[in-house]
Amino acid sequence: MVSRSTAPVQTAPARLAAGWQRWLEAERAHLPLWLPVALAAGILLWFALPWAPWRQAAAAGAGALALGLALAGQRPLAWGAVLVLAGMGVTELRVATAHHPVLAARQFASITGVVAEAEPLPYGDQRLTIVAAPGQALPDGVERLRLRLRGQQPDIAAGTTISARALLSPPAGMVVPGGYDGARRAWFDGIGATGTALGAVAVIAPPPPGPGLWLATVRQDLQVLITRRLPGEAGAVAAAFVTGWQGAIPPATAQAMRDAGLAHLLSISGLHIAVVVGSVTLALRLLLGLWPWAVLRVPVPTLALAAGALAGLAYTLLAGAQVPTVRAVIAASIVVLGMLLGRQALSLRLVAAAAFAILVVRPEALLGASFQMSFAAVIGIIALYESRLGRWLAAAREDEAWWQWLARAGLSLLASGLVAEFALAGIGLYHFGRSGLYGIAANLIAIPFTSFVAMPALMLAMLAEALGLGWLWPVAGFAMQRLIDIADVTAALPGAVVTAAAIPAPVLALAAGGGLWLALWRSGARWWGLVPIAAALLMARADAPPDLIVSGDGRHVALRLADGRLAHARDRVGDFLIDNWAEAFGADAAQAVWIGALPAGRCSADACVVEAARDGRRWRVLATTGRSLIPRATFAPACAAADIVVSDRRLPAWCRPRWLKLDRAALATTGAASLWLADQRIVTAADAVGDRPWQPQSP
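^ that's the sequence the OP posted. Answer follows.
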């Protein structure tokens, strides 16, 4: 008699649940890496939902999901939901604690205040951060404002009390709907107004004695010292390496650094912190090693490492404690602690701890290119070296020939560059509309050159200056200029830059999720991360750029031409607007043209008219550009013949275009607007901003 097995047959859901549990068990060691990811998801959700009722509903949903998963025994997923809720909570708390007044409307004002920070800009301009002077108040109760001084005015030190006549405005919001929100950045920086000084600034009182603004004063003094010793672009780049201020770098140099993939060198981050910590540690260890008494009685390696960590912290404070610098100094401190304890500290857990710490304190940093780029590159490179390929590249072999070691080191640098470029390309395209293609080659030269030549030369020049010796400054200047030359040569190569139209935020989030899935897991399931990355690429290609962009004040109109170029209605437009429009259209800002110069456009002193063909239909756009009122007998027929009318003034009711009227009254509610003509679709800045405190709107 044949016996049959009596084991129960598992159903498909049971097999799926069992497989899920086995996979979680296999990846248990990597589950903590997802804690900051879940926190970041909650932060991102808070910023993605423009209206308070939506955010409240999402928070309630996350809490209910966490409770349901906990009751179902899915503890890892429950913790993820809890951290999503925590991410929304820390963002709400940060917004509440950072609340401050914002200027209500554009106005001329006389201000008296104390300079909290003075940053140099190109062409001799300065940017001052001003707080109210004792016994004085800034307009509309604003606590801090930024003021630009144009032309050759005397350098103003931090702590100086000044008086000026200025044209002030609320911080500018989105130039392009869904694009960079300058008002949000200014609000989290505590800035309630921005403006330009009209005429000379009067100094009321010099900086008072005392330690109140000591750090800002030291930072400014170093900026002045370096730029005086090294005039021109080399000095501006050198000063950025020390103080973190990039405003004095000429725009052409900054653009070349971005196009060459070397912009990360201008932002004080891991490379700079590593050079400072490593240099101080090595120098102190060598010096103490020459003192027999210290060698016999003091733990020299421990003391040297501690001094290096303190030097990194001091450098971070001096450079303004920006996100990449904070991330780097946290990582360096953990590495130093691990070395003191005799443990391997450089790992993805270290990066996760740094990300978690930053996001809890400054959740708004998640939206910035600086945070995204610095963490994406580091995560990618560490994930590479924790993989089988990375372990082979990093393995040391005693019997290995020198040429084999050199070849493996070259492959290691190449692999690191490829991973970093892959991680950064999408972020660069999202934030800047362009990405360099030769960044790998440029970084293979520039990073070692910066680490072993440029930064050491700058540090030695500053040390020599402290000792009264200034002869090392030309060496530092020569090194900085060679770094700029690498950027210039790379950026000038044919096909060095790829451009793309504006990428929607959900596309970037999808690609980032796929990249994290690929980097943080270790089992074969990690390769499923390629699916969302591929989907994001397809979505980015399929998403059409807008046909027309209208500025929030109605003064400016940008049209995407059939050949991809950008055309604008006013003959004079600022570079800031042109650059933002070019990024949204995926166009070259240098090829922007005036509508009046087009065969399909006609412009007078008062208005411009242009026709654009889309999907077999011609659209007629009318934009007012002058200050004089146009007679009704002339303007009413022009309105009736136009599909879209745009104006920076309130238009009368008898102006009735065939489709859309965007005048000052309408744009006061919507802000900047993007239009897709074929679909007759409109997206406004108000759709993305919602009821935020930095730019409140009505639902």
